[in-house]
């Protein structure tokens, strides 16, 4: 990894891979410029983290990375976690590295590059990364959507290994809807997560001809922090649903468990490379609403446990209404869950692709 600044999906997936390797008796360790969160305390096994600690400018970073791997000629090719590590490895001249491509540039949060200089810089970075990915290593993605994007951007043919949800103590249970309907969103509160779509859609259903609250006492819990948090609070107030939508910000593991325990529907209309929270929700017995632009939708297209929407925001109201009506009717309850990948199956697939086993 480059810098570890928060425990996100990429960090947790790499910890899951390290745990699986440890269970197989295979030594592994993490290399990073800086670890600001203390990865060791999140691992369930003894974890070695090498912090290179270069001067924090791109040239010094790349030199430190190149020097480290030049001193370790073990014959085992390293695995880069994401776009920036792959770019830096390519600049450092590391041959044959593997890469977990969690997201391509088109999926990064924030405004698109608009200036000519910004577009030129992106093209240069993509070209350098592409050359690195073509030096003999394997590129691994989690979905068909990411595979298509990776091929388009970098000109490589990646292999799909579908990620499973994180382990949790709460098992699967059916959740028939009674008088209340708690919905849940777990993500960073950023523009690409489309939380504004959720707010406006719920407001439309509440203020329509037949208010949603006349059918069921509903609420939405939003867990996560981010740059759009205050804007989303203001939007909920503007649309008259602030009393039914609660923004929790950062939550502890215990609080997150409680929110999952209370939930009947998980909302995830984001555009993203995969979407592990959908897997985690389903494994608990919580149906999901998600967008086709979320990579995990590949395996959820033909099940009443998932409402997969397409198109723009105009599709959110009918999709959400359908998901809620299906929940109230309980049409998903007698249907078995679709086959879901696990952390272990994903980690084993990655290890096989990298030829570590």
Lateral arrangement of strands in the main beta sheet:
11-10-9-12-13-14
CATH 2nd-level architecture of the largest domain? 3-Layer(aba) Sandwich
Question: What is the CATH H-level superfamily of the largest domain?
Answer: Glycogen Phosphorylase B
Form type: globular
The total of helices stands at 11
Mean pLDDT: 92
What count of structural domains? 2
Number of DSSP E strands: 14
Q: Describe the largest sheet.
A: 6 strands, parallel
Helix/strand class: alpha/beta
Termini Cα gap: 22 Å
What name does CATH use for the topology of the largest domain? Rossmann fold
Radius of gyration: 21 Å
CATH class placement of the largest domain: Alpha Beta
- Taken in chain order, the helices and strands follow as EHEEEHEHEHEHEEHEHEHEHEEHH
Summarize this structure briefly.
The chain is an alpha/beta fold. It is built from eleven helices and 14 strands.
Write structural notes for this entry:
α1 (9-23) packs across α11. 37% of the residues lie in helices and 15% in strands. The protein has helices at residues 9-23, 58-70, 83-91, 116-133, 144-154, 195-206, 229-238, 253-262, 276-284, 316-329, 343-353, and strands at residues 3-4, 30-32, 34-35, 49-51, 79-81, 98-100, 139-141, 159-160, 180-186, 217-223, 245-249, 265-268, 288-291, 306-309. It has eleven helices and 14 strands. It is α/β, with parallel strands linked by helices and 357 residues long. The chain folds into two domains: 3-164 and 345-353, Glycogen Phosphorylase B (Rossmann fold, 3-Layer(aba) Sandwich), CATH 3.40.50.2000; 180-329, Glycogen Phosphorylase B (Rossmann fold, 3-Layer(aba) Sandwich), CATH 3.40.50.2000.
């Amino acid at each position: 990894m480059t810098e570890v600044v928060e425990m996100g999906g990429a960090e947790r997936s790499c910890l899951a891979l390290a745990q699986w390797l440890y269970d197989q008796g295979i030594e592994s360790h993490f290399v990073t410029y800086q670890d600001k969160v203390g990865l060791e305390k999140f691992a369930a096994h003894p974890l070695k983290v090498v912090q290179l600690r270069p001067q924090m400018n791109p040239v010094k970073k790349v030199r430190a990375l190149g020097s480290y791997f030049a001193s370790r000629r073990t014959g085992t090719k390293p695995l880069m976690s994401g776009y920036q590590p792959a770019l830096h490895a390519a600049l450092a001249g590391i041959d044959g590295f593997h890469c977990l491509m969690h997201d391509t540039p088109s999926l990064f949060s924030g405004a698109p590059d608009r200036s000519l200089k910004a577009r030129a810089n992106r093209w240069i970075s993509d070209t350098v990364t592409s050359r690195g990915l073509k030096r003999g290593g394997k590129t691994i993605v989690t979905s068909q959507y990411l595979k298509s994007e990776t091929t388009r951007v970098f000109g490589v043919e990646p292999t799909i290994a579908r990620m499973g949800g994180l382990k949790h103590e709460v098992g699967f249970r059916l959740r028939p809807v009674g008088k209340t309907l708690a919905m849940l969103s777990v993500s960073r509160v950023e523009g690409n997560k489309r939380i504004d779509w959720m707010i406006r859609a719920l407001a439309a259903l509440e203020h329509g001809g037949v208010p949603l609250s006349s059918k069921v006492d509903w609420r939405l819990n939003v867990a996560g922090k981010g740059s759009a948090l205050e804007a989303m609070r203001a939007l909920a107030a503007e649309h008259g649903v602030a009393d039914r939508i609660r923004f929790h910000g950062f939550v502890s593991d215990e609080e997150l468990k409680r929110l999952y325990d209370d939930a009947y529907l998980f909302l995830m209309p984001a555009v993203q490379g995969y979407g592990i929270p959908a897997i985690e929700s389903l494994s608990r017995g919580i149906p999901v609403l998600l967008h086709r632009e979320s990579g995990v939708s590949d395996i959820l297209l033909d099940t009443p446990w998932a409402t997969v929407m397409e198109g723009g925001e105009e599709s959110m109201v009918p999709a959400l209404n359908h998901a809620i009506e299906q929940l109230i009717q309980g049409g998903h309850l007698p249907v078995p869950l679709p086959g879901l990948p696990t952390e272990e199956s994903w980690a084993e697939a990655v290890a096989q692709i990298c030829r570590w086993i």
